[in-house]
Design a protein that fits this description.
- This protein has one domain: Arc Repressor Mutant, subunit A (Orthogonal Bundle).
- The radius of gyration is 16 Å and the shape is globular.
- The protein is built from four helices and two strands.
- Strands 1-2 form a two-stranded antiparallel ribbon.
- β1 and β2 form a beta hairpin.
- The N and C termini lie far apart (47 Å).
- By secondary structure, the chain is an alpha+beta fold.
- It comes from Klebsiella oxytoca.
- InterPro entries: WH-like_DNA-bd_sf.
- This is Rrf2 family transcriptional regulator.
């Protein structure tokens, strides 16, 4: 069995903290957001923002969220492309703070 290193524990803790902050931000926005918007807000690469969204979707703390895909037209080529929107509908504890 492989041991878990301190670096792995620290990385998991950092991802959990970032996921919590991103979920709070998306909830307060009260609108669907994209991975690119999360990346810009938290100064992250888009790939990391996608991993953060994935982590939020798999949380079991009562957070209710959805990931929806819509097709949009690329303004440069005129071709359709998929665009995913992430929405947080309910975040435990937030209704007491901002209710």
């Amino acid at each position: 069995m492989q041991k878990t290193t301190r670096r792995q524990v620290s990385a998991a803790h950092d991802m959990d903290l970032l996921a919590s902050r991103a979920a709070q931000w998306a909830y307060r926005e009260q609108r669907p957001v994209t991975a690119a918007e999360i990346a810009a807000h938290f100064n992250l690469p888009v790939h990391t923002a996608r991993r953060v969204i994935h982590a939020i979707l798999h949380r079991v703390d009562g957070t209710r969220c959805t990931l929806e895909m819509h097709t949009t037209l690329n303004p440069d080529t005129g071709q359709k492309r998929p665009l995913k929107y992430f929405t947080v509908h309910y975040l435990p504890g937030e209704e007491n703070r901002h209710g």
